[in-house]
Specification:
Distance between the termini: 18 Å
CATH architecture: 3-Layer(aba) Sandwich
Largest sheet: 8 strands, mixed
Strand order of the largest sheet: 1-12-11-8-7-4-2-3
Helix content: 10-25%
Number of strands: 12
Radius of gyration: 18 Å
CATH class: Alpha Beta
Oligomer: single chain
Strand content: 15-25%
Number of helices: 6
């Protein structure tokens, strides 16, 4: 796949698409193609607890919440978005097991399964090979008793009634290492479950970091500080992007010559040598369907693709 790399468009260097049949590209690329007359539910969950470190701070809480808000605003500005059809909510949670009951509650609020179906779910949190983490709250059922802060797939993730659309569902986990292609990778395992059959399950291929852009890691000293800085994430867009470690200083370059700092093209970002975002991986039915940067479906510069 080769497209112009300007303004967040897909580059051949960052994107690979599998040869899986049955229209996987339609599932991954354009979630607006489901023409069912039902309402479309979009739920963006973000973990609202403090970090579990000796000195309490709220930096990652703000990162998660503002990343969810950026996704929400990108969807609302999308060319396909219709407020009469698409019902989108950003929802704070304190434990992963809250996700299932909340989906059920919103489904019932909009008239039940006969009236509404789920189009997209996003989870903004810390993550690992066993899924999203809530450090301060034990989850039910836990993946194990040693670290009971990630939910087990059996009787946990596999028991959620998502009420997915027939075609075009998207499930995105933005936390670290959620989309590794190892057999024990979380997104890959979720994509094999009956309650996620045919849904595009996205996850990060590496650790994730804050960024103003989805295609390159761009940050500043205030956001990177270990000290809580009020309103650090209130200015500019916020994304959770994959990146290699040790690139923090490279991500904090700033030039007064760069006009329109929050709306730079990928060409400008590359020219100024910001670290390129590591790709996310998309799994369908347990197989890799696509490997690409997050800007493929979530980019404030491109309302036509969100």
């Amino acid at each position: 796949m080769q497209k112009d790399n300007q303004k967040g468009k897909v580059s051949s260097a960052q994107t690979t698409v599998s040869s899986i049949k049955n229209g996987v590209n339609n599932v991954v690329v354009n979630i607006s193609r489901n023409n069912s007359k039902k309402l479309k539910l979009i739920l963006l969950f973000w973990v609202a607890e403090k970090d579990n470190i000796p000195i309490p701070r709220y930096k990652d809480k703000a990162w998660f919440s503002e990343s969810a808000q950026t996704r929400l605003q990108n969807i609302k500005k999308a060319t396909w978005y219709d407020e009469k059809i698409h019902k989108i909510h950003s929802i704070p949670i304190y434990a992963v097991h809250e996700i299932g009951p909340i989906i059920k509650n919103w489904t019932e609020k909009y008239g039940g399964k006969e009236k509404v179906e789920t189009l997209e779910i996003g989870v903004f949190s810390h993550c690992g090979l066993d899924g999203p983490i809530t450090y301060l709250t034990k989850v039910t059922p836990p993946n194990n008793d040693v670290f009971p802060h990630q939910m087990a797939i059996k009787d946990g993730w596999d028991s959620i009634d998502y009420n997915w659309v027939k075609v075009g569902g998207r499930y995105v986990f933005y936390g670290c290492n959620s989309g590794t292609d190892a057999n024990n990778g979380f997104a890959k395992r979720l994509a094999t479950l009956d309650n996620c059959e045919g849904v595009a399950i996205w996850g990060q291929s590496t650790a994730s970091y804050p960024s103003f852009y989805p295609t390159y890691r761009v940050s500043n000293v205030i956001r990177a500080s270990e000290i809580q800085v009020p309103y650090a994430f209130d200015i500019g867009h916020t994304y959770m992007v994959g990146c290699d470690g040790g690139k923090g200083w490279d991500a904090m370059k700033f030039s007064s010559k760069l006009t329109g700092y929050f709306f730079l093209s990928d060409k400008d970002l590359e020219k100024n040598q910001y670290p390129k975002a590591n790709p996310m991986r998309c799994f369908v039915k347990g197989n890799i369907a696509m490997t690409t940067h997050q800007g493929f479906f979530n980019d404030h510069r491109q309302p036509s693709i969100n």
